[in-house]
Amino acid sequence: MTAKLQVIGGGKMGEALLGGLVADGWATPDELHVAEPDASRRDALSAAIPGLPVGPDPVAGADTLVAVKPDVVPAVCEILADLGVARVLSIAAGVRLATFESILGDGVPVVRAMPNTPSLVGVGAAAIAAGSLAGPDDLDWATGILSAVGTVVVVDEPLLDAVTGLSGSGPAYVFLLAEALVDAGEAAGLPRETAAALAEQTLLGAATLLHQGDDPPATLRQNVTSKGGTTAAGLAVFEEGGFRDLVRDVVAAATERSRELGAG
Predict the structure, then answer these.
(1) What does the pLDDT average to over 184-203?
(2) Does the pLDDT at position 1 exceed 80?
(3) What is the pLDDT, as a whole number, of residue 261?
(4) Which of 16, 69, 214, 228 has a CA positioned 20 to 30 A from the CA of residue 115?
(5) What is the predicted pLDDT for the residue at 3?
């Protein structure tokens, strides 16, 4: 039986996607296949997802998710081209669609994706872009896979650099804000453990309000800001410090670096 999907690379992101697909009912473990060269990772995957076929080599004829480090993509694609695969979804960071298409050859649709690390806990954000041979059915297929671990949007490939700058790198920006809030709470007199617990729950609660409600962020901010109150005093410091411009510059810098890396 041809696997419904094979995953090349059994790292943390590959494992998260496999677990999400099984939990979501997209496939049963025996309908999947993982090609992972590291024996310890194969053992870990087998233990994490009982019944999952795991081996060192890819199989022929299957829809394929490429989840390997960018530097090994060409070698992986050569193997897949020799085997013959139906179509490919790549989550290899920075590797352009043209690279896949040039090695895989004619007749193999390719979709490129940029997920982020919250996919590891099922609340990721991913963008996908279609290659020259990928049609609506291929985008639906890719969306079905990635939506098992979060939200998926469709963009043109050049916009994946901006996606990288915003949501790909975005979790690190939030983690830095969390660090700064903890440090600030401690400086204001709170025990560090207390500051950490409050900062973590505040970020989670604010994100949940934004995600589950209908109000845009500006309205939510206004709702908690009383004229002359404590929140207004804190936000004024953000605005005076050029917070919006700083965030714009941060995303722009990450976007430009993504372009540079993609250009080789």
Answers:
(1) 98
(2) no
(3) 85
(4) 214
(5) 83
All structural domains of the chain: 5-157 (3.40.50.720), 170-262 (1.10.3730.10)
- Taking the CA atoms of residue 47, residue 71, residue 87 and residue 34 in that order, the dihedral angle to the nearest 10 degrees is -10
Q: What is the pLDDT of residue 106?
A: 85
Tokens 């496939």, residue? 27
The pair of structure tokens assigned to 120 is 């590891």
Please give the average per-residue pLDDT across 91-117, as a whole number: 94
| pTM strictly above 0.90 | yes
DSSP string, 123-169: -EEEEEEE-TT--HHHHHHHHHHHGGGEEEEE--GGGHHHHIIIIIS
Query: Helix, strand, coil proportions of the chain in percent (round to 5)?
Result: 60, 10, 30
Over range 98-122, report the average pLDDT.
94
Q: How far apart are alpha carbons 224 and 231 in whole angstroms?
A: 7
CA-to-CA distance for 155 and 39, rounded, in angstroms?
37
Buried b (16+ CB within 10 A) or exposed e, 144-183: ebbbbbbbbeeeebeebbbbbbbbbbbeeeeeeeeeebbe
Tell me the chain's radius of gyration from C-alpha atoms. Answer: 21
Q: What is the DSSP letter of 25?
A: T
H or E segment to which residue 64 belongs: strand 64-66
C-alpha distances in Å from residue 50, one per residue of 15, 30, 153: 12, 9, 31
